[in-house]
Amino acid sequence: MKAGIKKYLVGGAVRDALIGRTVTERDWVVVGSTQDEMVAAGYRPVGRDFPVFIDPETGEEHALARTERKSGRGYRGFVTDASPAVTLEEDLMRRDLTVNAMAQDEDGRIIDPYGGRADLEAKVLRHVSASFTEDPVRILRLARFHARYAPRGFTVAAETQALLKRMVEAGEADDLVPERVWKETERALMESDKPSVFFEDLEASGALARVMPEVAALRGVPQRADYHPEVDTLRHTLMAVDASVRHRFALPVRVSALLHDLGKAATPVSEWPSHRMHEERGLPLVAAFCERLRVPNPCRELALAVTRDHLNVHRARELRPATLLALLDRLGAFRKSGEGFEQALQSCLCDARGRLGLEDCEYPAVDYLRRAREVALTIQAGEVMRDGFQGPAISEQIKLRREQALKRWKQSDPTVQDGSAT
What we know:
By secondary structure, the protein is of the alpha+beta class. It has 19 helices and eleven strands.
């Protein structure tokens, strides 16, 4: 770059290097340059809302130093200045947290005008300035960031927690678009070892009730202590989500763990702590959640299936052959890949282990249903057709024979008799 133009490594790469965390991507800020000069130097422009460029050699992002001024509601309501006169300190001031507002020059020197290094050492997440309030997405991003670093002992500064509450009270969370809410939620579910922190932080600020009212409604809903020693339904739900991460299950499993008990918030108070029919009551709530936040179809389909049938999975060993076969069919056990079936079982495992003191409990329903599937699959269409059945009679005969096979299996194998629900 020509004289007077300087570039600095910024943000997460600086932060993670200081705490010994693997740096996965590097972003740069360029001071003293213009868009035309960056293009002339061979950088490829990609920014839509502000000047960002890709280094053709490294593929790393380079953004012109900029300031931002709030001009309207929401996260797009900004006027940006990316002139060569903008300083590094001014660019760092517009960032969200002090630990993200550090830079490193090309000689390796750390520039830290807002105390990010001290907060990093103290394991405190603190906003840089009052401009934090200008972008409502930061409510979600801070919760996600805290979820990622909470296992390392990080906490959110008290003044930042108070600021988040004021933002929500001012209606900033109401401007969050569904796509951004889902994007940050997905990242929280997939990037952290303890995603429950994400939802707890949103609840503490009041944002959870604004962006996920179906989930927020679970707080304070009691369950039977003999089944759920943790009692509170939201606590159970978040324990199930954390269990899905401990087991490294796929995103659809993590989403279904989050949504499987929404129906308990619809139980009449007079029926507490019992939640009869919460599966049926939960289905429209799951559908509404997924539609509003544009949740991907694989996550939506699994969440609906698990909501509908998780109690049937828990008591699978008690089911009669015909009921057991119908359950296998609804869970997709006979589809070619069997992936949905396996994920449903994984989600139910998380439900069972999302309970206080039962985080590592035995859960025989998984192996039982896998074995039942194998037994049922010994009956195939080819065998039925060779016996002379045609048309609709083929599927009817397959169903009948599979029921009979399951009945024989349950009668002959002592390990599957006299089961009880988990």
